[in-house]
Amino acid sequence: MNTTRRSRTLLAALAASSLVVAACASDDSATVDEPDTSDAVDTTDAEPDTSDAPDSTDAPDSTDAPDGTDVPDTSEPDGPATTDGGEAPAGNDGEVGGSACGTPHGPYEEKDAPSGEVRVAWNQAAYSFNSATNRGNATANNNPLYIMNAGGFSYYDADLNYINNDQFGTCTIDSLDPLTITYTINEGVTWNDGVQVDAADMLLTWAAQGGSYNDAETVVTDTGVTAQADADGAAVVVGPDGDLTSADEGYDAAFDPEEGTLLDGFTYKESTGVSFDSSSESLELVTEFPTISDDGLSITATWDSFYVDYASAGLFPGVPAHVVAQNALGIEDPAEAKTALIEALETNTEDVKAISESWNRDFDATSLPDNPSVYASFGPYNLTDFSEDGTMVFEAREDYTWGPQPGVQTLVYSIIGDPTAAVQAMANEEVDVIQPQVTADILTQLEGIADRGVEVRQGDGATYEHIDLAVANGGPFDPATYGGDEETARIVRQAFLLSVPRQEIVDRLILPLNENAVVRNSLTQVPGSPAYDDIVASNGSDFYAEADPEAAAQLLADAGVETPIDVRNMFADDNPRRASEYELIRDSVAQAGFNLIDGRDINWGSNLANPSLYDAVHFGWQTTAIAVADTGPNFVTDGQNNFYGYSNETVDALYDELNATTDPARQDEILAEVEAVLFEDAFGLPIFQFPEVTAYNSTYVDGVSSIAIAPTVFFNVWDWTAV
Are the beta carbons of 668 and 91 closer than 8 angstroms? Predict the structure, then answer.
């Protein structure tokens, strides 16, 4: 295994030893789909749940584009049902001339004017209105942004059909070889400041995530500073005496060992280069400058090689281009600002640096910004208040006509980190909708207030729990600790993972909530999915089938590794289940010779990008899309959700092949091969699929449901009605 550092992710990361999460879910996941700040993270088309996890939305790719007839049709045979019960027009997904972003919906059902108020609670407050940055990719941010922008180009319905909201815009496949797609925003679709959403907004997404402008010697730190990078990709630090410090020159002396922040007197050396704090394996394949139509509403992109998950990883609008240009270039008029932004990107002028820095930092906020453009939206709801405690208030937008119409006038989104407190708030009728991280006690408490109108829905969640190891932080799993001996470091990782009591965790913490719960043994497949059994049968996960501390201790002894071995374990603070997991893991790995150090952290989501603070981390990955290669960013070299410095050429090559493969059988074979390498390298372990509980008070709200991918309970927010 080649454990070279990722230049992009290095942030202040390599502080004490030598991160950014994707999006997250409500109970400790991130998105892999995307980190879940609730305690999960997302992967590719997942996002960490910052409520306890991180999100991965893209996957790598390559080879020649396949013949059009080989492209799988992702739509249902007769087309998915529309949300209003009608039949959607055929999408011709995967065909030239067809839709590249789901099955077109057609006109939406007219509704009465929105009315009433619904109060919903989540477990982590938002901190950025740009969830496409490495720092902002978390469920904590994605949930509010979905409420504000729901009904954009595409969304998933209750049956997980991917729907193109053609009232907003269309995505047309012009060619499959080379893959060429035209994205068009309908005239009259505007940001809530009245500015038309258009090609400039999509061009900015390409510029920020495609990597064409990034300087290899420039890195964005975890504080958003554009800094000079050393040869290893670490941000160079300037000391009080003016001397430069890099990762191999006493770098840890510049950082607080507990917080991982720069000590007084130390600063990052600012770079003159450009670095957008993001990446997309899909858009990195669009190296030719996209073409913008004369009316400015359409943009056409051509991929250098076929990208199998183009439908969920294309040119969609993110933050408003006119706001970025206004902030970066000092141009007041929105139209002039967008024109200047396009010209700067097209000619690659020095203004691109200012554009990148605005995109990186200007949309971060933990309360209502003075400048309303920072939280501009194009969907059914406007943000009207954002208080210091994280509470947000959304009001239905009066002029919104280009998507499903909202039924509720006011949504109050409050933050309650403790699931027991969330249940109590529901019992007190202070909130109407919650999706807490469920434990047996939480479920019992919810069932105990059924007489007050509380409905409880159980199901499989979008998040899975896992534990990952940092391999390039100077810690116990880093080859550098053993003089560069990669085999010894691998054995130490194997021994640690072999001691993790996955079955005991499931038996004690998950089975009481889901009698059918099992240990998850795949890093890419959900238990019960078509490919799961075949992949598990050949991926090498059977080595870790049973926790065996005695065998782990023998591995260490045979390798000549002295014990005890200190391992700093980071996990979400104020999360009872994570704390219980920690205790079970601690007691088991101790028998093998590992001293597990309690590293619970309220800021665990943002600190994922800083592996100097931990050696092992357990959280959840939350899936945000149904895709083939969406897990790539978790494992490929420099992947957006690969926070740990892991790099393996075989894994990179396999994902390159996967991104260009349309044969389903070969896709499964590739994923099995990827997993075999990851388990052999002891990258980390999956543990369990989250049980999910959605509770709502039917006395006050109707239409609440949930799906098994992000944004879970918010997926049909427009169908909610206040009773």
Answer: no
Domain spans of the chain, in order of start: 373-464+692-722, 468-690
Angle at CA 559, nearest 5°, toward 555 and 561? 95
Contact 133, 360 (CB under 8 A): yes
Which amino acid, one-letter code, is at 69? T
Cβ atoms of 641 and 505 within 8 Å: the answer is no
Per-residue pLDDT tens over the stretch 582-620: 999 999 999 999 999 999 998 898 789 899 999 999 999
The residue written with tokens 């943002």 in the block is 606
DSSP for 150-181, written as a single string: TTSSEEE-TT--EEE-TTTEEEEEEEETTEEE
Q: What is the pLDDT of residues 641-658, one digit of tens each?
A: 999 999 999 999 999 999
Place of tokens 């009591």: 501
Question: How many angstroms separate the Cα of 84 from the Cα of each of 115, 151, 160?
Answer: 19, 14, 15
Q: Measured between alpha carbons, how far is 673 from 558 in angstroms, rounded to an integer?
A: 28
Q: d(Cα 37, Cα 520) in Å, to the nearest integer? A: 21
- The string of pLDDT tens digits covering residues 136-176 is 988 899 999 999 998 799 999 998 899 999 999 999 999 99
pLDDT of residue 438: 86
Beta bridge partners of 463: 622
Contact 637, 652 (CB under 8 A): yes
Q: 612 φ, ψ to 5°?
A: -65, -15
Whether domain 373-464+692-722 has CATH 3.40.50.300: no
Backbone angles phi, psi at 701, to 5 degrees: -145, 145
pTM: 0.77
Domain 468-690 in this protein, CATH class: alpha beta
Cβ atoms < 10 Å from Cβ of 665: 9
Side chain identity at 541, as an amino acid letter?
S
Tell me the β-bridge partners of 469.
616
**Rounded CA gap, 122 and 38, in Å?**
8
- Local structure of residue 200 (DSSP, 8 states): H
Tell me if 641 sits within 8 A of 41, measured CB to CB.
yes
Strands (E), 46-114: 49-52, 103-104
2-30 CB burial, b ≥16 within 10 A, e <16: ebebbbbbbbbbbbbbbbbbbbbbbbbbb
Residues 6 or more apart from 591 whose CB is under 8 A from it? Answer: 499, 549, 550, 553
How is 336-405 classified by DSSP, letter by letter?
HHHHHHHHHHHHT-THHHHHHHHHHHTTB-SS--SSGGGG---SSEEEEEE-TTS-EEEEE-TT--SSPP
How far apart are alpha carbons 50 and 122 in whole angstroms?
11
Q: Which residue has the higher pLDDT, 529 or 389?
A: 389
Task: Estimate to the nearest angstrom the gap between the alpha carbon of 37 and the chain centroid.
Answer: 9
Determine the Cα–Cα distance for residues 538 and 536; give it in Å rounded to an integer.
5
